[in-house]
Design goal:
The protein is an alpha/beta fold. Helices cover about 35% and strands about 20% of the residues. The chain has eleven helices and 14 strands. The strands form two sheets. It has an eight-stranded mixed sheet. Helix 1 packs parallel to helix 11 and helix 3 runs antiparallel to helix 6.
Amino acid sequence: MRYKLLALDMDGTLLNSQKQITQPTIDAINRLLDRGVHVVFASGRNLPEMGEPHRVLDKIRYGVLISGGLVYDFVADKALAVHPVPFDIIMKIIDLGIEERAMIHLHTVKGSIARRQDIDHMADFHMGIYQTMFDRICEKADDMKRYAFEHEGEIIKVNLYHRSAESRQRSVERLKHLPIEPVFAEGTSLEATPRGISKASGLIELCRVLGVSIEETVAIGDAPNDREMLQTAGLGIAMGNAEDEIKALAGFITLDNDHDGIAHAIDKFF
């Protein structure tokens, strides 16, 4: 199979444990792009959070962002597909987050929004490694329900960063009857996108735009929010640092994110 597209998860995959992209990985990706292969970001991150990775890899044109809720063209600075969460569902998730004393994080096409009180104490939610980034790019809203009301139809994903795994599990149980996709992310995080929306659905949408068949794609990831994408792509590759359940469903396991696993996979399959 001659693969025509490579989709890359961000945290735990493209980024090493220090949240950096190593030079061997940058070089391998740029060589692939120079050959005409599409390389796309496939991340739970929103557009503001992609600033530094896209600056380092500025030849990458497309992103499947916000866990598939946004398909974006960086060159045209244009959303190709947007899938917002229904307003009534957002309000229920925010209420739950307040009850669980979780950090509530809203994603819009070009916005990253959280409460000031939470941003100042991200380590309490096992997200301390992102403190600097949130300080820099996150819009601070003291009343999340008011923000949601004033931006109805714009919110694509709601993240809840919990104080404990037990708190996250309670949230999952209370959200599972709603028409959303609740997915575990790193630490004690929970992502909520509309039902049917995932990195896999975003990858399919982008393939249609590019005229690439899904069988001609390779996807690399490490976490539960990559599961459907790895199963949908022509070849799903798990990072060496991936969770065991992700490794079990992958067609290949590459090196970990601190040993240039992406570069190793590119050398092997492209």
